[in-house]
Amino acid sequence: MGADDEAAREPDAPGADGSPGTPGTPGTPGTLDERDRAVLELEGRSWRTAGAKERAVREELGLSSTRYYQLLNALLDRPEALAHAPVLVNRLRRVRDARRAAR
Q1: What is the predicted pLDDT for the residue at 60?
Q2: Total Cβ atoms within 10 A of residue 19
Q3: What is the rounded (10 degree) CA torsion for 58, 55, 50, 88?
Q4: How far apart are CA 53 and CA 43, in angstroms?
Q5: 59/71 Cα distance (integer angstroms)
Q6: pLDDT value at position 41?
């Protein structure tokens, strides 16, 4: 691999001015990683019972229920999540806000 090959991949790297790499690159600001997308996808499904959802969280994501809901709550505040699944994120934000107001 020559210097030209490395230069061709340079746009994905952070810029000299500290700006992030190309959007869509895992780990860069402004993108959702695979786990974040999986959390949103799982939350968007319909569930007949709470037990089925909890089991799917453990089996598919390898997370405890507590950790799953922590990640989901943090995702609701991210603009990337809103851009990825706007209907779901807005609905979950309304539910969260209603629960907070009820306290």
Answers
A1: 96
A2: 9
A3: 50
A4: 9
A5: 16
A6: 96
Place of tokens 């061709």: 8
- Asked if residue 81 lies in contact with residue 36, where contact means CB atoms within 8 angstroms, the answer is yes
pLDDT of residue 54: 94
Cα–Cα distance between 54 and 57 in angstroms, integer? 5
**Residue 85: phi, psi to the nearest 5?**
-145, 75
Token pair belonging to 76: 């609701």
Start-to-end Cα distance in the chain: 61
pLDDT of res. 88 = 97
| Below-70 pLDDT ranges, the chain | 1-29
pLDDT digits (tens, 9 = 90+) for 89-101: 999 999 999 999 9
Q: Are 69 and 43 in contact (CB under 8 A)?
A: no
pTM of the shown model: 0.69
Burial of 1 (0-12, 13-18, 19+ CB in 10 A): exposed
3-class DSSP state for residue 92? helix
